[in-house]
Backbone:
């Protein structure tokens, strides 16, 4: 683990004052506030494997406790770092300066699922997949499905505007947040938005908080839009002899007027990597693969699958397989899901990015990334949500080998420059956090960053919310 | 027309100073700046029929001219009122204080339509329907379809976050704005967002500008997301003996997992009103109607229509008709489109609202509005986008009769209170403008309004952009 927090020796030694510690002891019962390094250490990191040292960890169970905490922390000018399951891969949950980590895991109740209003009201600590199962049991559908959905929380999904496989057709977390409650520094409770599916009264504070990476306030409740649950789903996995053929297939599908639920891409390095963990069903000539999902009614779906297959066929796949319904689809998706665990068989460390380019620039982006990998003698795994132009770039390396680490870091900068030169963005769904913060000025103008800083100051005048992150 | 602008006699007489007039004459060629009351009067009103008096009207053709104008106006502390086609029904375009009206109608170029990136780049004055036709000719689809689409502009659509019939399935304007350029007071050009379909770097300035009703800056370019064009559409119009049966049908359709493209409702007063202009095909027993649209592939669509019809049938409609393809569908939609012209056969004036309630509270809202109408001896036409909970409420009256006008105004307040008591919102798609501004404090908290004011101050420190509107 790399240690990035700028904790001075003095601060680290002093920690909280006796009065500060007494405040937290008065606010929360034992077990819900942690002070010892043994207990707090794990709350100083996230899936980025960056690490900071919390002065204390608190686990409020009520909004009233969050109010008291943020009133006090603001007066004390103490940074507050909200977190739930910390699946964030960019260091968004890492305490960059000494401060209080606020875990929302004890605020994890599904408050309401309403099949008439088509909304769910949840606390931030609710696990995304738990919510999905709960609403599906009632014939409802919450589409955002980040790859971390089985372990990530709604609070984190909202804070990062999480995407997922189904974003091509159904959009991202932003598109499902109708209302929210957030405690602001100073302790005021912002209740904004509603249970209405449309609402255009005033500036859009709801979407301003979505994706704000915990820099404006601490979410305590989220109202989410639900859809009717489609009756059936089907998937098609197709293998091509090269990238060009796969990109032709993508083009054919859209040109046929088909908007798939999901459209995932796996490059040659990824296919080799997946073959390390799985018995892959395709021939060795497959050097690029596309994985589609469709949904619809049981009656109509087979016809839609036929149309999709015909559009793909025009790009001459060397292999393909169709699965109708969850049981048949699951094996096709297992390979996609194994990429992350399989990647560590290639190298022990990865630098993970989720760059996004305009959809038409995908081929250039993928070819450019491969050229960077070759020039630096690195394996770079590229896969992801090709329907959105959103590519997961995993620069594999061994961080204990100085030269490899340096090459990987240089490659990350080169990939960033390549993506920006194609009109792309640093992040499609992970956010900026700590790891992309050094690159943000390459994408955002001084004017944009100035406006963002002023907006932040309106919510958080003393800069206590998740400082050092995002923008 | 009612005159709402707070122009003092002194200001109205003085108008622009000689130096101010000289500046505008230097900035723009003759014909692109108007000063005489005869020429400017029409730019002081919009579809709300509210009216103010512009000091001058300017019609820039380039962003550079907008930059110069906003630099100067900010220094002069002169209000600026952006407008395009002024189809706004809430007075959003009306100069509430003496200032400069900035017409974007000479910035009306479709700059780019890209079938690989699936984006369109347009200037603010482009007519929505013109863009739709242009992209459809290339097999692409821009879903937002406000009722005004044949005469309204993309700039206005973005400024109000316009909705439309297709919002049930495809969302609203917000969901299609990927990037934009806007000139801020002082003349800085904010270029934010991109051509990427996903982007989560920094606070969401793009969506902050969407729906901001011209209060933050002047749009000069918008990058919109496009979808593949569905192959075919079909519509179903169903008549029911009462509101309850129609609401049952809505419930059945969603419960069957069907998410229609459009789901429009027409109440009994609206059906009577439509019958004044059209030979309606249904029997007199029809007192509520639903109009659905579906889309999909030519092969699968008939099966989807069958499923929809079956779900509707369970609610015992007394009459129904199906149209497959544009030619067959058109007659079904003519009736819906005739509501606005037909309404003026009932009474010469209307107070028009677009309140929205949580989807499950629709029946209560519609019944409550009818009770208000009866108690006040008024005809209130209710129709709209029932799939979103978005109801158009038209309080018909004769404004020249004092008592009727007063009853109508009282009814508007009562409808507002009813909607808010059901957890609803003042506006689903029109915005606040001038006409709803007196009611905003009933919906937005002091904290929300305070934050909005601070955000506005970051963009527009001297408050010159469309003052007196929205929040």
Residues:
């Amino acid at each position: 683990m790399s240690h990035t927090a700028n904790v001075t020796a003095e601060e680290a030694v002093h920690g909280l004052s006796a009065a500060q510690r007494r405040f937290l002891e008065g606010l929360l019962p034992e077990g819900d506030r942690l002070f010892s390094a043994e207990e707090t250490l794990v709350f100083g990191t996230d899936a980025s494997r960056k690490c900071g040292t919390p002065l204390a960890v608190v686990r409020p169970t009520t909004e009233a406790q969050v109010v008291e905490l943020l009133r006090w922390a603001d007066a004390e000018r103490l940074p507050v770092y909200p977190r739930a399951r910390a699946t964030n891969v960019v260091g968004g949950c890492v305490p960059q300066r000494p401060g209080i980590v606020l875990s929302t895991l004890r605020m994890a109740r599904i408050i309401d699922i309403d099949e008439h209003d088509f909304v769910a009201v949840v606390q931030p600590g609710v696990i995304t997949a738990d919510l999905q199962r709960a609403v599906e049991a009632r014939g409802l559908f919450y589409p955002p499905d980040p790859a971390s959905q089985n372990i990530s929380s709604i609070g984190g999904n909202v804070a990062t505007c999480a995407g997922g496989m189904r974003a091509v057709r159904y959009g991202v977390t932003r598109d499902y947040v109708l209302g929210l409650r957030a405690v602001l520094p100073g302790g005021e409770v912002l209740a904004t938005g509603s249970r209405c599916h449309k609402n255009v009264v005033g500036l859009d504070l709801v979407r301003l908080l979505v994706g704000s990476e915990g820099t404006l306030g601490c979410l305590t409740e989220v109202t989410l839009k639900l859809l009717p649950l489609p009756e059936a789903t089907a998937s098609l996995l197709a293998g091509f002899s090269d990238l060009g053929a796969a990109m032709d297939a993508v083009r054919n599908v859209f040109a046929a007027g088909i908007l798939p639920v999901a459209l995932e891409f796996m490059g040659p390095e990824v296919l080799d990597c997946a073959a390390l963990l799985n018995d892959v069903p395709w021939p060795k000539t497959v050097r690029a693969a596309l994985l589609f999902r469709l949904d619809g009614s049981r009656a109509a779906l087979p016809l839609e699958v036929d149309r999709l297959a015909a559009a793909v066929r025009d790009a001459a796949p060397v292999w393909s397989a169709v699965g109708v319904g969850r049981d048949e689809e699951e094996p096709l998706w297992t390979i996609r899901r194994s990429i992350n665990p399989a990647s560590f068989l290639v190298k022990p460390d990865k630098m993970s990015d989720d760059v996004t380019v305009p959809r038409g620039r995908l081929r250039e982006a993928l070819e450019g990334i491969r050229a960077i990998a070759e020039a630096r003698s690195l394996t770079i795994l590229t896969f992801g949500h090709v329907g959105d132009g959103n590519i997961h770039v995993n620069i594999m390396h061994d961080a204990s080998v100085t030269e490899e680490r340096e090459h990987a870091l240089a490659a990350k900068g080169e990939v960033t420059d390549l993506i920006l030169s194609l009109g792309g963005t640093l992040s499609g769904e992970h956010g900026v956090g700590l790891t992309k913060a050094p690159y943000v000025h390459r994408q955002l103008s001084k004017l944009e960053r100035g406006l963002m800083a002023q907006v932040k100051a309106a919510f958080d005048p003393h800069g206590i919310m998740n400082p050092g992150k995002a923008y």
Summary: Confidence is low (pLDDT under 50) at residues 1-13 of chain A. The two ends of chain A are 24 Å apart (CA to CA). The longest strand of chain A covers residues 232-240. The CA atoms of residues 28 and 87 of chain A lie 25 Å apart.
